[in-house]
Amino acid sequence: MTERSRSPYRSTRRGRGGPVPQPRRPRDPARRAAYDVLNAVQSRDAYANLLLPVLLRERGITGRDAALATELTYGTLRRQGSYDAVLDACVDRSLRSVDAEVLPLLRMGAHQLLSMDVPQHAAVSTTVDLARRVVGHHRSRFVNAVLRKVSARGLEEWLSALAPDRRTDPVGHLAVTHSHPRWVVQALAEALGEEPAGGLAETERLLAAHNERPLVTLLAKPGRATVADLADEGAAPARYSPYAAVLPEGDPGALQTVRQGRAAVQDEASQLVALALSRVPVDGADGRWLDMCAGPGGKAALLAGLVGERGGHLLAAEVQPARAGLVARAVHRSVGDSARVVVADSTRPPWRDGVFDRVLVDAPCTGLGALRRRPEARWRRTPDDLTELVPLQRALLERALDAARPGGVVGYVTCSPHLAETRGVVTGVLAGRDDAELLDAARHLPEVPGVAVDRFVQFWPHRNGTDAMFLALIRKR
After folding, report:
1. What's the gap between Cα 141 and its chain centre?
2. Whether the Cβ atoms of residue 401 and residue 261 lie closer than 8 Å to each other
């Protein structure tokens, strides 16, 4: 290769001193961006929803290229389990032995061949061309050979041949055909109250919903923006929350209300669980609210606006300094500057017990309720995570009940429907206390039908079009 061919510049015009170098546009920027995100997710546990927007912005990828990069990234992550089953049948050795840098290329190619409207020759040739540039000529030949085998059948035909029999192993069948780890399928079925012997029909609808691209939902921060303001910028009112609007397409960061910090991206169920906490009647004072696990700040922004309109104040605590910074930006210029953000471990709180009127515990969890938006979480989490998370969740709920004053109310929230993280935590904590009572949470969300489970609230993507948020409301006696 000559020095000229290695140069990242090309001459397109001349100046007084000769050719003026112009930056060379990367070849196939959409696929390269998608590969870089997928490789980072696999190699260093990056988050696609955080990394992809940064790469698109830094590389100036917009329009159709940005849409292609987004579909390649999220589509590949959502269907990764199904594609791995196909790829495993197409390599001469175990898929586990394939080089880590090559695997994202194979998955991307499989997604184009099996789930996108990309002509077969284009799906193979563009992936092989990218492979030459990122992993070298030798390994690109391997990519070419495997993808040509993949292209021999359609996705339905592959899954029909590879998935376990639905009658004898319904959990395994759904795991392969809908691309979820087996343990996740089992946990979701239990949360829905279904048994494998019954066929798992609703579980299958939920898994299918996880593989659909969700619309972007926005929060109009109380006192700073309205749904009408968002409608003026092309959004439509959401189904339930009076502060929510849905953006049918486009980049939410391009909206003026979002750039000004008056609105933000937030799932509708996340808004509703915070709203329900604010609606529970309390006797006496109602001006001291606490958000114990506030990062990255979506619910804190809503609560700060609501308490500010009542003349009160929110204390938002976050244990990680970087996430506390996100919270500070989210609540900036809330009504009456009603929020204060502190870096604190809420299991060892710096505040006194028995002083808050309302307390929110949005507990760290497996995130199984947001698999539409964070598809990589299904491959990153394992059942072992529960052994660390559940004790932490119980400790946080205990401290929340300690922080609430008599007559105050606590909202326990997880973005997971897993029974161990939801009902198991709440019933376990309440069994050891005589100073708290479980309220009927659904009574405080009358606009949302069908979310009541016993005295809890459970949202579902396939029923409500939201993340699978869980809510319990508890009164301090």
Report:
1. 35
2. no
Give catalytic residues, as residue numbers.
Answer: 415
The domain containing residue 66 runs over which residues?
29-150
CATH number at residue 336: 3.40.50.150
Q: Is 8 a known ligand-binding residue?
A: no
Contacts 24+ apart (CB under 8 A), 438-444: 438/472, 438/473, 438/474, 439/280, 439/409, 439/473, 439/474, 439/475, 440/473, 441/276, 441/471, 441/472, 441/473, 444/276, 444/279, 444/280, 444/473
Q: Give the list of residues 6+ apart from residue 462 with CB closer than 8 angstroms, or none.
A: 202, 205, 206, 208, 209
Round to whole Å and give the CA distance between 53 and 50. Answer: 6
Q: Whole-angstrom Cα distance, residue 106 to residue 147?
A: 7
pLDDT mean across residues, the chain: 94
Give residue 193's pLDDT: 97
What confidence tens digit (pLDDT) does each residue in 341-368 have? Answer: 999 999 999 999 999 999 999 999 999 9
pTM of model > 0.90: yes
Q: How many CB atoms lie within 10 A of CB 354?
A: 13
354 in a known ligand binding site: no
- What local confidence, expressed as pLDDT, does residue 9 receive? 34
- Output the domain CATH number for residue 43: 1.10.940.10
Token pair of 392 as six digits: 């932490």
Per the annotation, does 163 bind a ligand? no
